[in-house]
Every structure is written in structure tokens, then in C-alpha cells.
Amino acid sequence: MTRFVRLSAVLATAALALPGLAYAGSKEVPRMSSFGGSCPRCELSGRRLAGAQFIGADFTGAALVGSDLREAHFMASNFSTADLTKADLTDSELVGAVFKGSNLTHARLRSSQAKGVVFAGATLTGADLSDSEMVAANFTGAIMPSAVFRSAELHAANFRGAEGKDTRFDDAGLNSAVLAGRFERASFRSAELNAAVLEGGSFDGADFKDAEMHHAAIRGVDLSRARNLTQDQVDEACGDAKTRLPNGLSVHSCGAMVRVIIQQSGAGGWPRAIPAPPVPPVPPAPPPPPTPTRYFMQPLPFSD
User: Fold this and answer.
1) Cβ atoms 14, 37 nearer than 8 A
2) CA-to-CA distance for 263 and 272, rounded, in angstroms?
């Protein structure tokens, strides 16, 4: 009975969101839609939900195919296994939201801002996440061929086990990100890969033209068929005996240059490679002791 009441309340709110505007006399009054409670497997495909707020809501398995979710706010809500194919989430805000196993094929998330968001196992085929901010987002096991992350902020994001063939990371910020997945023919042109972890990934045909790779860890990775990789870039990174590079390039051993710290993010941990701390400078020598103070006495004039 409780579940039926919650479901009815959520559906009623969704129905009110259809017109998008309420009217007061001759004036148009913007309507704010707010969703909470539980509504698994709800059918909201094609709805106009721009600016809606999803706060602590459970939309597991819901259908929002082609829905207008521009500037929507997703706060601590669960959209696991939901179908958001071709949904428009441009300029949306996602805080602590979970899209585990969801379908975001050809969805638009341009300029969206995400914090602590989980896309583990999600399908992002052809999705557009250009100019988005998704620091420390969890993309483990995500299926995202031909997705676009152009100019996105993806620092410390976890792409371990992701399928990213033909994915575009041009000009993206991927500092301290984990790219231990399959990225055949992906583009990292002018991307920031400083302190990123590329260990165990596949990068056949990937383009690294003008990418920054300061302190990047490329141990045990096969980059022999990567394109536009230069010796100057490799000199900034570190690898090991199992690192494979294009003919004529060589890499030095990581040694103690990079250490890996495991932290928790979403459903799993993400390794973040950071430079070892610098050697503290030698303290300056103490100043010499002050010279003793001297007092000069001037004789007073003698008078009879």
C-alpha cells in the first residue's frame, strides 16, 4: 500500500510536468517539478522535465527515453539500469547519483556537473559529455565506444575495464585518471594525462598528439601501435620492461618516481598516481652570534 501511494505521487508529479508551464491569468509561470520516493520502472519517456529535481529518488529501471532533462538536478538518486537513450541532460547537475548499468546511448550530457557519480557498467555508446565536469567519476566497466569527452574535466576518473573504442578525449583533463581499459583508436589529442595510470590498457591506433604525460605510469602497457607519441612525451612518463612503445622510443623505469594510493569512489576504489614528495631542502646555517655591545663614555667637561 505504501509503495502504491509513493508511486501514485511520483506519477502525478510527472504528469504535471508535461506542459512545462502553468498559467496565472495571462502570465506564464514556470513550474518546478520535484521527484522523491520510489518509482522503479516508471515510464517517463519523452517527457519534458527540464529543471526537474530528483532528490533521494529511486528510479531503478525507469524509462526516460528521449526525455528533456536539461538543467535537471540529480541529488543522491538511483537510476541504475534505467533507460535514458537519447535523453538530454545538458547543463544538468549530478551529485551522488548512481547510473550503474543504465543505458545512456546517444544521450547528451554536455556541460553537466557531476560529483561522486557512478556510471559503472553503463552503456554510453555515442554519448556526448563535452565540456562536462566529472571529477573522480566511476566509469569502471562502462561500454562507451564513440563517446565524446571533448574538453571534459575527468581528473581522477576511473575507467578501469571500460570499452572506449573510438572515444574522443581531445583537450580533456585526465590528470590522475585510470585508463586501464580498451581504447583502440581513441583520441587523446592535447589531453592532460599527467600522473594518469595507463597500465594494462589497450591503445592500438590511439592518438596522443600534443598530450601531456608528466609522471604518467605506462608500466606493462602496449603502446607500440599508438599514433603521434614522441620521445619527449615518453621521457616525462615512466614504465618498465613490459612497456611496449613504437619503434625508436624508450622509457625509463618508474622506480620510486610514482606511488599509487587507493581511495574509495562510488562503488569501488580508484588508484591515483601522484609524484613522490620532493626531498626537503637543507636548512640554512644559523646566523653568527651577535657581537658584544660596547658602551662609549664621553668625559664631561671639567669646571672649577
Assistant:
1) no
2) 8
Q: How many whole angstroms separate alpha carbon 75 and alpha carbon 244?
A: 43
Length of the chain: 304
Handedness of CA 60, 81, 96, 110 (dihedral sign): negative
Can you tell me the distance from the alpha carbon of 171 to that of 180, in angstroms, rounded to the nearest whole number? Answer: 19
What pLDDT is attached to residue 282? 59
Q: Give the span between the Cα atoms of 177 and 222, in whole angstroms.
A: 18
Would you state the cell numbers that stand for residue 246, as one nine-digit string? 613504437
Other C-beta atoms within 10 Å of 295: how many? 4
Whether the CB-CB separation of 79 and 96 falls below 8 Å is answered with no
Q: How many whole angstroms separate alpha carbon 155 and alpha carbon 289? A: 51
Check residue 76 and give its pLDDT: 95
Q: What predicted TM-score, i.e. pTM, was given to this entire model?
A: 0.76
